[in-house]
């Protein structure tokens, strides 16, 4: 795993009352991207970011403070307003808030995101040594008819935390699960950057009709790094168009973050499972007849 800037001995700040300390379940990943050979099927939808070639930029891209990011290469650099997307329309995946409909798929997205330290630059919220992951994270791009909506987990610099939102169906402001990555007791803010955070968004995969987000932060004022999760909430009724990383909201991100080790899992269409089962039954019958 590419971790040039990760400080392994960092301690985690106190999480908010909205987030429980719990790791996500184990997933059977259908897709994984390590970005060792380029974009690997992803496209840049917006912004000026790029794939970071480790052979050219072994210490990561040069940031506005004039220094290297420290996150190494063979990953995606997504500065202010940059979004990368991977089209999954052909998989015909649908979300539905009910646990029983036959057209209800589930899917989960995971990625590592890097928070660089840009001190001695100033002017950042709350006296922070950088712009963190403001509106920067991972998520889903949905479509219902001609309408597009998104759901995501991303940083929120205004309150130094990481939040989950779902802009589908009747959610006005699905602001759930706040993971504080700053302001722990006795901490130095400059120590809370130059590290990788892992984000997970489980959208009806583990529990049909329910969404859950997880976040691993490698620093904690109370001890070693830990996973945090939100409570479960209902998903919307939408068709998944693409998975997205970087600038995931309806307004541009403000970040110099990088993305690596992206993973995606999904529950196949019930019709596909039926076809597979029918095929296996036919194969089993042929074997029996041959015997």
Topology summary:
Elements: E1 31-33, E2 43-46, E3 50-52, E4 75-77, E5 83-87, E6 94-95, E7 107-115, E8 133-134, E9 136-144, E10 147-156, E11 161-166, E12 176-180, E13 195-203, E14 210-217, E15 226-229, E16 233-234, E17 238-247, E18 254-255, E19 258-266, H1 270-290
Antiparallel strand pairs: 1-19, 2-5, 3-4, 4-19, 5-17, 6-17, 7-13, 7-19, 8-18, 9-10, 9-17, 10-11, 11-12, 13-14, 14-15, 14-16
Briefly summarize what is shown.
By secondary structure, the protein is mainly beta. 7% of the residues lie in helices and 36% in strands.
Number of separate strands: 19
Number of helices: 1
Provide the gyration radius in Å. 20 Å
The largest β sheet comes out as: 9 strands, antiparallel
The run of helices and strands is: EEEEEEEEEEEEEEEEEEEH
- For the record, the CATH class is Mainly Beta
CATH-level-2 architecture: Sandwich
Which secondary-structure class do the elements indicate?
mainly beta
Helix share, percent = under 10%
Unreliable stretches: 1-18, 182-186, 272-281
* Amino- and carboxy-terminal Cα gap: 49 Å
Using the alpha-carbon principal axes, give the shape.
globular
Which fold name fills CATH's third level, the topology? Jelly Rolls
* Mean pLDDT rating: 80
